[in-house]
Amino acid sequence: MTALLNVEAVNSAYDASQVLFGISLEVQAREVITIIGRNGMGKTTTVKTIMGMLVPSSGSVTMAGAKLNGKPTYKVARSGIGLVPEGRHVFPNLSVRENLVATAQNRHKVAQPWTLDRVYQMFPRLKERERNLGVNLSGGEQQMLAIGRALMTNPKLLILDEATEGLAPLIRAEIWDCLQRLKDNGLALIVIDKNIGPLLRLADRHYVIEKGKVVWSGTSQALRDNPQVLHEYVGV
Ligand SMILES: Nc1ncnc2c1ncn2[C@@H]1O[C@H](COP(=O)(O)OP(=O)(O)OP(=O)(O)O)[C@@H](O)[C@H]1O
Fold first, then answer.
1. 95, exposed or middle or buried, with CB in 10 Å at 0-12, 13-18, 19+?
2. What are the alphabetically sorted keywords of the record (predicted)?
3. Domain extents for the chain?
4. Pairing of strands 81-84, 5-14
5. What is d(CA 43, CA 33) in angstroms, rounded to the nearest whole number?
6. What confidence tens digit (pLDDT) does each residue in 203-215 have?
């Protein structure tokens, strides 16, 4: 079966500084995977390589069998990958509503596309703040907006890089609840987060990376059964 996303033996560097050393991972349709590892191990660099922000020096990235590496980021997005980037990056001078519609599309003609109403149902707080500028939102509201904006592109795969970082516990819980609902809806996810407990509950499989290499991969149950993996590579 062709994976939805296939990252195969990818090497990536920032100029002369190589960061990824033969990273391979795959995501099936409707599957939730995580990339786990200490700070600076290459999680965000893996995301940047998938998204075409960084061109791998070797290896390949394919989406539903079509090669992505070398393609500009907007084409990667059009292939059906939505990104909720680290740091959120909402458009500060656009309103909530404008942020949501700015990049909206339904290129793959999904049967039940994301609309403003659906996003507002998921995050009622965004409806209340509809006319506020991005810059005036709280961190949690900006995070909801970043997720809503990515959903409005109707992706087949959504990548979330540190989506709960710096948020209050209640807001964090709301984000985890949202991700569970997206999973239940059949959306494939790649989640990068420091909170291992919720990752274990949400995800099907995990990739643990260390210094730009996958050092362990397996199911949530396998990770629960092997606590030394987290101890050794994440320090928990
Ligand atoms: N723009 C850049 N130029 C040069 N080196 C970079 C750049 N961005 C990241 N790096 C380096 O690449 C390595 C991997 O960084 P990356 O951001 O992928 O790590 P990470 O696992 O996502 O960690 P974090 O949790 O800190 O975000 C680090 O050594 C980092 O210093």
1. middle
2. Amino-acid transport, ATP-binding, Cell membrane, Membrane, Nucleotide-binding, Transport
3. 5-233
4. unpaired
5. 13
6. 999 999 999 999 9
Give the pLDDT confidence of 139-165 residue by residue, as tens digits: 999 999 999 999 999 999 999 999 999
Burial zone of 42 (CB within 10 Å; 0-12 exposed, 13-18 middle, 19+ buried): buried
**CATH no., domain 5-233:** 3.40.50.300
Each residue of 121-132: pLDDT tens digit? 999 999 999 999
Cα–Cα nearest to 118, from 160, 143, 141, 149: 149
pTM reported for the whole predicted model: 0.95
- Which atom in ligand 1 lies closest to the alpha carbon of residue 45? 18
**Contacts for 89 with CB less than 8 Å, ≥ 6 apart:** 146
Alpha-carbon span 19 to 190, nearest angstrom: 20
Give the whole-angstrom CA distance, residue 210 versus residue 197. 20
- Among 14, 196, 233, residue to substitute to test ligand 1 (most atoms within 8 Å of Cβ): 14
User: Angle 67-68-71 (CA atoms, 0-180°, nearest 5)?
Assistant: 130
Share of the chain above pLDDT 70, in %: 100
> In testing the pocket of ligand 1, which one of 21, 43, 83 has its CB within 8 Å of the most ligand atoms?
43
Q: Give residue ranges with CB within 6 A of ligand 1.
A: 14, 17, 19, 37, 39-45
Q: Which residues are 23's β-sheet partners? A: 10
**Predicted pLDDT of residue 236:** 80
Give helix then strand counts, H and E, for the chain: 10, 10
pLDDT at 80 exceeding the cut of 90: yes
